[in-house]
Design goal:
single chain; mainly beta; Deoxyuridine 5'-Triphosphate Nucleotidohydrolase, Chain A; four-stranded antiparallel sheet; 1 helix
Length: 141
């Protein structure tokens, strides 16, 4: 499968995998900006994608930026639905202690394309019983 990519900015780059077989493809900034500690910024990639029906794109943090600088994708993973054709923008949060300077061409996040199921939903009066039941956060100790 190949994903159609439209360049919306002259400096935009195609998503790129660092190694053959990698699950994630790097997304690159087309903007120059600074993210101070404790703040978030929306960063443009300058691309739009045509993700096929039955698939979705998931924008996730780059492990190096997360570990070395505390940079996270705010809504990780960010979801790109198959029907969306606008610019892929990434919301980054700086949980570190120093400013992060972002320049055009910098790798800011990674994109994973996955098959997704789209089941319907219907209302019922009762759900089936399970061993876990309604045990939620912290219910396992």
């Amino acid at each position: 499968m190949e994903i159609q990519v439209r360049k919306l900015h002259p400096e935009a780059r195609l998503p790129h995998r660092a190694h053959e077989g990698d699950g994630g493809a790097d997304l690159h900034s087309v903007e120059e900006l600074t993210i101070p500690p404790g703040e978030r910024r929306e960063v443009g990639t300058g691309i739009a994608l045509a993700i096929p029906e039955g698939y979705a794109g998931f924008v996730q943090p780059r492990s190096g930026l997360a570990f070395r600088h505390g940079i996270m994708v705010v809504n990780s993973p960010g979801l790109i639905d198959a029907g969306y054709r606008g610019e892929v923008r990434v919301s980054l949060y700086n949980s570190g202690t120093e400013d992060l300077a972002v320049a055009p061409g910098d790798r800011i996040a990674q994109l994973v394309i996955q098959r997704v199921e789209t089941p319907g939903f219907h209302l019922v009066e009762e759900l089936d019983e399970t061993g876990r039941g309604s045990g939620g956060f912290g219910s396992t100790g």
